[in-house]
Amino acid sequence: MWQESTDPRLGYGTAGFLQAMAELGHGFFLPDKESPVKAEETRSRDVGAAPIAPVSGACPGPNGGGSGESGRLEANGAAAPGRVTLERVRASEEVEHYIERANEILGTVGYTEHGRRHHSLCARRAREILEQLGRPQRVCELGEIAAYLHDIGNIVNRNGHAHSGALLAHSILCGMGMPVNEVTEIIAAIGHHDEADGFPVNAISAAVILADKSDVHRSRVRETSTINFDIHDRVNYAATRSVLSVETRGSEMEQAADEAEVKCPVAGLITLHLTIDTSISPVMEYFEIFLPRMILSRRAAEKLSCVYKLQVNGAEFL
Ligand SMILES: [Fe+2]
After folding, report:
1. How far apart are CA 306 and CA 300, in angstroms?
2. pLDDT tens for residues 113-164?
3. Distance 213 CA to ligand 1 centre (A)
4. What distance in angstroms lies between residue 114's CA and the mean position of ligand 1's atoms?
5. What is the whole-number distance in angstroms between the Cα of residue 76 and the centre of ligand 1?
6. Pairwise CA distance, residues 65 & 74, whole Å
7. Would you state the torsion angle of the CA atoms of residues 306, 310, 311, 315, taken in this order, to the nearest 10 degrees?
8. Alpha-carbon distance 191 to 185, whole Å?
9. What is the pLDDT of residue 52?
10. Any bridge partners for residue 60, and if so which?
11. What is the CA(255)–ligand 1 centre distance, in A?
12. What is the model's pLDDT at position 19?
């Protein structure tokens, strides 16, 4: 984990770049690189690997009392009345106001679109990732809720938005009566989604990271007149297609695992397919600004026992 400036608009400097290249396996020594063995140990503690059972200790409800009953599942796994779902979260005026206003505020300071489009896309992708890897239904639901809420902290400030967003989500979800063990996994995922200081701490977190970092697209650029002097706008505007695929079997996945020298069993291959208009931005600019995101995405894939690949214009880069 490098310690240099983490503002995505400022870049990472030479030392950060060298460390990033080392983590991507380009021949530089990196003492804290996670070994396959360590990764396997981490996976064995993965709370997302098993259904999340409700616990009796629940969040304080909207009036300060425990309200965990409303988030319980029936014995057959069917939704009990009051179960917190993405639909309920989306219906919250508080949530929608945070997302809308945060998006407006980010616009005033020059960031790309972070509105309902981004949150909805991330929610859908996070759920699809978990579903395709066979995770339990409730884990998939928690993944999409976490992804839908992951950027609400921008209402406070871009700096530290993952942390403030986690606290906001805690308040919102506890107010809805979600069991504390579910809230815990969601706020951990939100608090660890940013490449500045994030890490895939559970399966939900990994899915949120992969979904969030895959959303590179020209539709996120608010003002095309900025693309000549703003590299983030230029790279996003150059991205005309962004698709995240998950393959869970087949020779291509096994070959990818061999190439990545993964020693432990691999559950799948997660690939980000980008189409970049190089007349607008050279591919190198994508790497220049998104290298930390790629590293975090690779770690997230590993958390899900998967290999991460990046294809740009049909060519494989990772
Ligand atoms: Fe995001």
Report:
1. 8
2. 899 999 999 999 999 999 999 999 999 999 999 999 999 999 999 999 999 9
3. 7
4. 7
5. 34
6. 22
7. -110
8. 10
9. 60
10. 66
11. 31
12. 53
- The first and second tokens of residue 211, run together, are 């979904």
Architecture of domain 51-214: Orthogonal Bundle (1.10)
211 CA to centre of ligand 1 in angstroms? 8
pTM: 0.75
Strand order in the sheet with 315-316: 239-247, 268-276, 306-312, 315-316
Q: Ligand 1 centre and the CA of 111: distance in Å?
A: 11
pLDDT of residue 220: 84
Q: Distance from the CA of 115 to the center of ligand 1, in angstroms?
A: 9
The DSSP annotation for 61-120 comes to -TTSSB-GGGGPBPTTSPBPTT---HHHHHT-HHHHHHHHHHHHHHHHTT----SHHHHH
Distance between alpha carbon 151 and the CA centroid of its chain, in Å? 10
Token readout for 281 is 């931005």
Q: 150 C-alpha vs ligand 1 centroid, how far in Å?
A: 6
Please give the sequence-ordered ranges of beta strands (E in DSSP) within the chain, or none if there are none. Answer: 239-247, 268-276, 306-312, 315-316
Token readout for 204 is 């939900």
C-alpha of residue 87 to centroid of ligand 1, in Å:
19
Dump pLDDT digits (tens) for 257-277: 677 776 666 888 999 999 988
CA of 212 to the centre of ligand 1 (A): 5
- Going from N- to C-terminal start, the domains of the chain cover 13-45+216-318, 51-214
